[in-house]
Design brief:
six-stranded parallel β-sheet; alpha/beta
Length: 295
């Protein structure tokens, strides 16, 4: 743990410890400031970012914008829910579009790199807190790695849980999407289909075959209703959203070097070139275009 402190952003003083205890120890040492302009700026930036995220989530994709999946989940989360996320592009949407309210808990694969954690985390959460609702967000790559097999554990034990509300959300885009985008934005390499394309698996059918509820969604106007069905089910649910792999995980501020690498990937003939140009333009333009009504 000590090795990871300040790994992403340089710090003047590194404090390692339980976050709650550390903050409680620091509070008496802080002086309340009366000048509020800095905080007001931060609040306005956050409000603007929330609006940007909503506009991006509502941009149409082919067939489903993955951001919308997470965006529609957020307001439907029951109080005290626990949400886990795997590594991959689903972690982007988990971090950006899911808003955890006070009393909720979240868990993300350590280091943002180890695939296959979301379903085991969600199972552990259910055993630790059987009364709480649990949602796991998983990419299809991680689902095929080991999460799919862990559904058997859910099928074995769910009837013992006080609250059977346990949902596994699979982002099915037939692509190891996070690495694909990293190759484009960090290395300037086009998608290498031999390593990045993965099979289209009927995950919902597998869930149904072992006694769970399966839901399949391939239309954006059905996303919200599908979440409602999942939360109303009388047993654990696996819900598959057929998402568009060409929706870019755009950062708040695009660096020149990232733009150059991205352009290089396109110039080298990315197999998804048409789709990623279309979606990138739509995502960027969503910030300046008026919002449309939800379906």
């Amino acid at each position: 743990m000590a090795m990871t402190v300040s790994i992403r952003y340089p710090m003047e003083v590194n404090l390692q410890g339980d976050s709650a205890e550390t903050l409680r120890a620091l509070l008496p040492l802080l002086n309340q400031k009366t000048e509020r302009s800095w905080r007001q700026n931060i609040e306005q930036w956050r409000a603007d970012w929330d609006q940007t995220l909503e506009k991006r989530a509502m941009v149409a994709a082919d067939p489903i914008n993955p951001q919308r999946v997470a965006f529609e989940l957020s307001p439907r989360l029951p109080d005290a829910a626990i949400v886990t996320s795997d590594s991959g592009s689903c972690a982007n949407w988990y971090a950006r579009d899911v808003k955890l309210r006070r009393g909720m808990m979240g868990s993300l694969s350590g280091g943002l790199a180890s695939m296959g954690a979301a379903v085991p985390y969600a199972i552990a959460a259910k055993f630790a807190h059987p009364e709480r609702s649990v949602v796991a967000m998983v990419g299809d790559g991680a689902m095929q790695m080991n999460n799919m097999a862990e559904l058997i554990t859910v099928a074995k034990y769910w009837k013992e849980w006080q609250n059977p509300q346990w949902i596994c959300c699979v982002f099915n885009n037939e692509d190891l999407n996070q690495v694909t985008w990293e190759q484009r934005a960090m290395e300037g390499d086009p998608k290498f289909e031999a390593s990045q394309n993965i099979p289209n698996v009927p995950y919902h059918r597998i869930a149904e075959s072992i006694g769970l509820r399966g839901i399949y969604v391939d239309r954006e106007d059905q996303v919200a209703a599908a979440w409602d069905q999942a939360f109303a089910a009388d047993r654990p649910v696996l819900i598959v959203f057929k998402t568009d792999p060409d929706v870019p995980p755009l950062p708040p501020h695009i660096k020149l070097e990232q733009a150059k690498k991205f352009a290089t990937a396109l110039l080298h003939g990315d197999p998804n070139q048409g789709g990623i140009i279309k979606q990138s333009v739509k995502q960027v333009m969503s910030k300046v275009m008026p919002a449309r009504d939800k379906d």
